[in-house]
Amino acid sequence: MASIIKLSEKNRDFFALVYEVVKQIPEGRVTSYGAIALYLGMARSSRMVGWAMNSAHAQKEYIPAHRVVNRTGSLTGKLHFSHPDLMKELLEAEGIQVENDKVVNFTELFWNPSVYLNFD
DNA sequence: CACATGACTGACT
DNA sequence: AAGTCAGCCATGT
């Protein structure tokens, strides 16, 4: 029926914040759901970040969701893209090597928002 | 209200 | 490194 997602105002803000952070991820770098949650002060709501990403594709502005993986560097969200291999292709297009659904050199490519988006 | 589900994580093995 | 478990929290039934 209604394809419109019902969200409380509180969660709308949360979604917007998540997208805002994801959009700041530089090309060729990746981060994790937990790191974003931590940066937003919701360290125990990492699942909610993934939940927010589920609606990223519906946003008017482009969200580089492929740059967000789980803590081990696994492409856990690949099945939610329009094509299962799209996530890998997008990452490789940015120079990120992907092997067996995992980001190679994940620890080196990891982009921590809490470090690069420090509050002053 | 109880229970299941999920783009997660940390601890433990 | 990889698998299992419990904790996590918003949604759906």
Structural class estimated from helices and strands: mainly alpha
Helix content: 25-40%
End-to-end Cα distance: 46 Å
Number of helical stretches of at least 4 residues: 6
Strand portion, in percent?
5-15%
Q: What general form does the structure show?
A: globular
User: In order across it, which strands form the biggest sheet?
Assistant: 1-2
Helix-strand topology string:
HEHHEHEEHH
Tell me the Rg in angstroms. 14 Å
* Averaged pLDDT: 89
Count of distinct strands: 4
Describe the structure.
- The strands form 2 sheets. This protein has a two-stranded parallel ribbon with strand order 1-2. A two-stranded antiparallel ribbon has the order 3-4.
- The longest helix has 16 residues, at 9-24.
- The chain has helices spanning 9-24, 33-39, 46-53, 86-93, 106-109, 113-116, and strands spanning 31-32, 68-69, 98-99, 102-103.
- Helix 2 crosses helix 3.
- By secondary structure, it is mostly helical.
- The model is unreliable at 1-5 (pLDDT under 50).
- It contains 6 helices and 4 strands; from the N terminus they run αβααβαββαα.
- Strand 3 (98-99) and strand 4 (102-103) form a beta hairpin.
- It binds a DNA duplex (13 and 13 nucleotides) through helix 2, helix 3 and strand 2.
Give the gist of this structure.
By secondary structure, this protein is mainly alpha-helical.
Key traits:
single chain, 120 residues, mainly alpha, two-stranded parallel ribbon, two-stranded antiparallel sheet, 6 helices, 39% helix, 7% strand, globular, DNA-binding
